[in-house]
Amino acid sequence: MMNKAGGTVCSTVSDRRKTVYSDFPSELLSSAGTSLHTVGRLDADTEGLLIFTNDGKLSNFLTRPENKIRKVYFVRLLRKLSPAEQDSYKTEAEKGVSLPPEKKFGVQQGGSAQIEWICGDGDSGFSDSCKISVTEGKFHEVKRIFRALGNEVVYLKRIEFATICLDENLAPGAFRALSEDEVRSLEALTS
Fold first, then answer.
1. Residue 78 has pLDDT above 60, yes or no
2. Residue 43 known to be catalytic
3. Integer Cα distance of 86 and 54 in angstroms
4. What is the DSSP code string of 70-98?
5. DSSP of the chain
6. Cα dihedral sign for 11, 158, 145, 63?
7. Are the C-beta atoms of residues 148 and 99 closer than 8 Å to each other?
């Protein structure tokens, strides 16, 4: 498990940015003849939970859209929303929104996403922060969901992936081995 720092890329080589692999000891990067790799990716500006494995079967299972593996993100938006707007966003996200085009991806239909709004602004109930849960993993999915809803993500951090929650004691860029219970919980998903 790594708490990915913003500005790093999920690639083994990069000309412009630091990679998430640059702080790993070399003996960890290649164990039992199989390379350690990330399970899925996070954008360069996205922080948070990354899982690394040398188990290709597990990685494949966790990243296949048809397996509906839950990923939860903390989001901060550019514009604060009233309680009525929050309800509207929540309803539209649950139905699935049409994701606007981005880079090589055209318009795509998004799946159902669940939004949980976080601590309103005093008694007014306005908020710019939420948790969003998705299962598909489309390109820039969370950012595109909120763009489709009329807002912009200014901060994004993955806090859960499948059965694993980000260890908040990990500083950005730090990593640790998964506990035996965490490994068993992932293995249980594939059996």
1. yes
2. yes
3. 41
4. -EEEEEEEEEEE-HHHHHHHHHHHHH--E
5. -EEEPTT-BSSS--SSS-BTTTTS-HHHHEETTEE-EESS---TT-EEEE-EES-HHHHHHHH-GGG---EEEEEEEEEEE-HHHHHHHHHHHHH--EEPPBTTB--EE----EEEE---SGGG--EEEEEEEESS--TTHHHHHHHHTT--EEEEEEEEETTEE--TTSPTT-B-PPPHHHHHHHHHHH-
6. positive
7. yes
pLDDT at 31 exceeding the cut of 70: no
- The catalytic position among 15, 23, 43, 181 is 43
Q: How many residues are present in the chain?
A: 191
The per-residue pLDDT for range 103-130, each reduced to its tens digit, is 888 899 999 999 999 976 666 889 999 9
Give dist(CA 68, CA 162) in Å, integer.
9
Q: Are 142 and 132 in contact (CB under 8 A)?
A: yes
Q: Distance between CA atoms of 112 and 136, rounded to whole angstroms? A: 9
pLDDT for 33 beyond 80: no
- Averaged pLDDT for residues 162-190: 95
Q: pTM for the whole thing?
A: 0.93
Q: 133 near 157, Cβ under 8 Å?
A: no
